[in-house]
Amino acid sequence: MYILFLTIHIFSGGLSLLLGTWNLLQKKGNISHKKVGLIFVWGMLITGFTAFVLAILKPNVFLFIIGIFTVYLVGTGQRYIHLKKIDKGQVPKWIDWLLTISMMVIGIGFMFWGINMMINGDSMGMALVTFGLIGLFSVRKDFQNYRGKARKKMYWLAAHIARITGAYIASVTAFLVVNQETFPSVIPSVVYWMLPTVILTPLIIKWIRKFAKN
What is the count of structural domains for the chain? Predict the structure, then answer.
């Protein structure tokens, strides 16, 4: 059973990584972008849910949390496409609240876990705190948007860009972390955790300013 779900996890994760890279380099908003993006979304959801199963079959709290983080990013990123009129009275569905509240709990857990690791001299704690802050910042945006108090008119597109690209960052990060033993041993583990976020976050900001500036 474990091998089966691990195989599905690796296949869907690898496919999502390839499709995400393709969409990252292509023109945004056209038909190809949307079709490839939808496959990417389903691939990442499968990757996240299989992570839950793997974490249960062989208890792994960290893998379970990463799975939730991935599902939250890609789930809310896709859901925002259908939440364009909250400022006109549209009400978010239960799945929207479930994703957001789950991330809030996990984000707080990341923060405490990361701070404890840093106190004990483990540099990996920095990565956990960073991801916790990203998650809680997104949760804050959700609460703001769901209450119809978004600062941007195209809040839904800004959230979609940030979350879907964030899910791609998660897939790249997972690839680097899993394969870090094939890279020079002098590179600290925290580098593999942080590098995709450091490189791609400026692109998220650029795309939001370009496509969702209003």
Answer: 1
122 domain-assigned: no
Residue matched to tokens 């707080």: 108
What is the C-alpha separation between 34 and 124, in angstroms, rounded? 36
* pTM recorded for the entire structure: 0.83
Which residue type, as a one-letter code, is found at position 46?
A: I
Tell whether 131 is covered by a domain.
no
| Domain assignment present for 128 | no
How far apart, in Å, are the Cα atoms of 110 and each of 106, 127, 195?
A: 6, 9, 18
The alpha carbon of 99 is separated from its chain's Cα centroid by a whole number of angstroms, namely: 12
Q: Is residue 164 part of a domain?
A: yes
Q: DSSP of 141-153, one letter per residue?
A: HHHHHHTT--SST
User: What angle do helix axes 31-57 and 61-79 make, rounded to 10 degrees?
Assistant: 150
**How far is 25 from 77, CA to CA, in rounded Å?**
19
Determine the distance from the C-alpha atom of residue 102 to the mean position of all C-alpha atoms in its chain, rounded to a whole number: 13
pLDDT tens-digit map of 68-77: 888 999 999 9
